[in-house]
Each structure stands twice: as C-alpha cells, then as structure tokens.
Design goal:
Elements lengths: L1 E13 L13 E13 L11 H12 L5 E2 L13 H16 L6 E7 L5 E5 L2
Length: 124
Amino acid sequence: MYSVTVRDSIMIAHSLDHPDFGPARNMHGATFTVDVTFISEKLTDMNIVIDIALAHEALKKVLTPLNYQNLDELPIFKNQLTTTEFLARHIHDEMKKEVQHQFDGQIKVTLGESHVAWASYKGS
C-alpha cells in the first residue's frame, strides 16, 4: 500500500449538549490538527498516489467553512453533537467529494484534539 498525508489545522467553538459530556456541554474552543491520508494499492501513471498540491488545496477548501466558526451555529450541523469522531467523518466525506475525479483509493481523516487524544475515520 502507498499513502500520502497532508496536514492543516482549524480552530472552532462548539458545545456538546448531552449530560455525558460533563463540562464539555458548555461552549468551548478546540484547535484540531487535521491529517488526511490518501491510501492506494497502486501509483498513477505519474508514479504518485495523489498530487500533493491538489490534496492541500482540497483540504483548505474543505476546512475553510469550519475554521473560526461556532459549529453550533452552522446549519449543516443543526441538532448534531459535533464530536471529534463526527467531524472526522464530515471532513472525510467532503474530501472524498473534492478529489473524486483525481483519486479513487481510501481516505483516512485524523483529527488531533490534543497531544494525547485524537480520532479518525477511514472510508472504504
């Protein structure tokens, strides 16, 4: 298997309005490190998994609507608990749309919530 990973970050605010989240039920901020890994069994005719510049551009495009936003106020997340896992899936799905004409392998998105905690989603 081959893989290429690109990285960026976002700063968001949100609340997790469920009793099991304790103090995180209240509004709080988070800075996520976002790693997107493109996985392929084979290389293209240019001997790459994906063009790294294209991957960076796609990631920037996907993250821009989230960066510096209160996720509780975004219509796309209405009535959702925007957990790290949920956001990893959302970013994955948006990245898949962005690169669908240039990449057909697996995509894995990892959100680093801190230096000791992170969550990932890998599509099929």
